[in-house]
Amino acid sequence: MSKDKYIYITTAIDYVNAQPHLGHALEKVQADVFARYWRGRNQKVWFLTGTDEHGTKNFESARKLGMDPQDFVDQNAVKFKKLVEVYNISNDDFIRTTDQKRHWPAVVKMWQQLMQKGDLFKDTYEGLYCVGCEEFKLPKDLVDGKCPDHNREPELLHEENYFFNLGKYTQIIIEKITSGDLEIIPKSRANEILNILQAGFDRVSFSRPRKKLNWGVPVPNDPDQVMYVWCDALTNYISALGYAENSEKYQNFWQNGHITHFIGKGILRFHAAIWPAMLLAAGLKLPNRLFVHGYITVDGKKMSKSLGNVIDPLALVERYNVDPLRYYLLKEIPATGDGDFSEKRFKEIYNSDLTNGLGNLISRTTNMIASYLAGQIDRAVVDDFNWSRIDEYTENFQYDQALTEIKNIVDQLNKAIDDAKPWHLIKTGSEDDIKKIKNVLSLVAVSVRKIGDYLKPYLPQTAAKIEEIFSATPIVKAEPLFPRLKD
Ligand SMILES: [Zn+2]
User: Fold this and answer.
1) In the Cβ-directed half-sphere of 41, how many Cα atoms lie within 13 Å?
2) pLDDT for res 4
3) Residue 68 in 3-state DSSP?
4) Ligand 1: distance of its center to the CA of 131 in Å?
5) What are the boundaries of each domain within the chain?
6) What pLDDT is stored for residue 3 in this prediction?
7) Topology, domain 342-471
8) 83 CB-near residues (< 8 Å, 6+ apart)
9) CATH code for 6-119+165-293?
10) Fewest 10 Å CB contacts: which of 183, 222, 271, 333?
11) How would you classify residue 171: left for phi > 0, otherwise alpha for psi between -120 and 50, otherwise beta?
12) Residues labelled catalytic
């Protein structure tokens, strides 16, 4: 990325009908590293996250609880705001799709652009409708012609919908992805979506009759129709910047910015097909990059309500603090692949990397500097670690590699102390031995201070503590940063 660019970073907006899970935390933490990294390089960064609050499931859930849908989504959006706060996410903004002042005008504007371009048209949708599910089914969803969830045959129903002419844009999108104008990370995901696009996309339903879905943005000039998720939810990325009023922020960060959307693999086709097609139809810039992460399993199993293994990411932070969890998510889950979480594995990593590794290095070093050297070190000492490699990994989203590199440096520093044995040298008290002690502890202190700098995007709280500990004069014995966890 070149200098002085406006960098725009977004996560997907979370559907508030379900509780926040660890996957939500993963995506936000991954995006947060990128935002903090580029801010630290004095780039102009804008980082958005938010919530997706319309749709049948929210409406139905509210109705079952006897609640007004707005009250229901208000209540659930709080949990996602809390997640962002607890995981120390440095987002600049939080958009909610029920925000009629900030979000709706942009959605209406987008709709009107597509309409003017002639890419939205009204037609009859004919499909197999399961009354139990209250949704249309595809033949592949049925078992022996019946809805497997309700064991009944769906009815053949007709309804009027607006459709978006996605097929018109698939060829341009294929070219943009192939040329790298629209970069998709990892490459395997680009190939996956190219195959889907090459197979051809038909029209996409962009609205529902109000009598079927009475919870969403009304279609302009057609009060019987409500917008379906696409135009509503995807437009959040520009509504929050002020697309409706063509604000300076929108011009800077969207039209002239470098845009990275962080998304999960399950919503790739919406972001790599429908969204670019909408932007092309509206004559707007495309995102520069989609970063696609995988899923987290728990103890090797998919998280699901029925298995009862959905981990509450908020409770984890209460138990273990935020930085150890960020560390696990970023180092143990490959950034673009699937990964596993278990409390057993988490505790192992915590104790080995953080307690015995970095934490012990800081405790013993500050302890010896305080007691052997009266807190004084030589700050001009020069190390020979390959720090720039860590930046390269971070810029290329290889977060696990960056943290592994830092861990390797920590291990080497611990070994340098073990080899020098300052606790032996101090016994002779000779000028020569004191000099040796000062050399090794200065090297470690200066290097750990640098580790703190490189950890800023990853473990912001730990980085701040390291800076505080090692910029003090005299340096005093530090409290343990990562108290050992019991099994
Ligand atoms: Zn059904």
Assistant:
1) 19
2) 55
3) coil
4) 6
5) 6-119+165-293, 342-471
6) 52
7) Isoleucyl-tRNA Synthetase; Domain 1 (1.10.730)
8) 20, 24, 25, 28, 313, 314
9) 3.40.50.620
10) 222
11) alpha
12) 21, 24, 130, 133, 147, 150, 302, 305
Q: Which helix (H) or strand (E) holds 48?
A: strand 44-52
pLDDT of residue 301: 84
End-to-end Cα separation, the chain, in angstroms = 44
Task: Kindly tell me the sign of the dihedral angle through the C-alpha atoms of 362, 366, 372, 375.
Answer: positive
CB 210 within 8 A of CB 226: yes
Cα of 146 from ligand 1 centre, angstroms: 8
Check if the beta carbon of residue 92 is closer than 8 Å to that of residue 47. Answer: yes
Low-confidence ranges of the chain (pLDDT < 70): 1-4, 487
**Ion ligand 1, residues whose Cβ is below 5 A away:** 130, 132-133, 147, 149-150
Q: Is the peptide bond before 474 cis (omega within 30 degrees of 0)?
A: yes
**Predicted local distance difference test score (pLDDT) of residue 130:** 86
Which tens digits make up the pLDDT trace of 433-484?
Answer: 999 999 999 999 999 999 999 999 999 999 999 999 999 999 999 999 999 9
**Residue 49 Cα, ligand 1 centroid: separation in angstroms?**
33
Instruction: Please tell me the distance between residue 222's alpha carbon and the centre of ligand 1 in angstroms.
Output: 29
What pLDDT score does 84 carry? 98
The answer to whether residues 106 and 244 touch, using CB atoms and an 8 Å cutoff, is yes
Task: Quote the ligand 1 centre to 130 CA distance (angstroms).
Answer: 5
Expressed in angstroms and rounded, the spacing between residue 210 Cα and the centre of ligand 1 is: 21
Same fold, 6-119+165-293 and 342-471: no
At CA 38, angle to CA 36 and CA 39, rounded to 5? 60
Compute the distance from residue 71 Cα to the ligand 1 centre, in Å.
28
Using DSSP's 3-state secondary structure scheme, residue 205 falls into: strand
The string of pLDDT tens digits covering residues 147-164 is 998 888 999 989 999 999
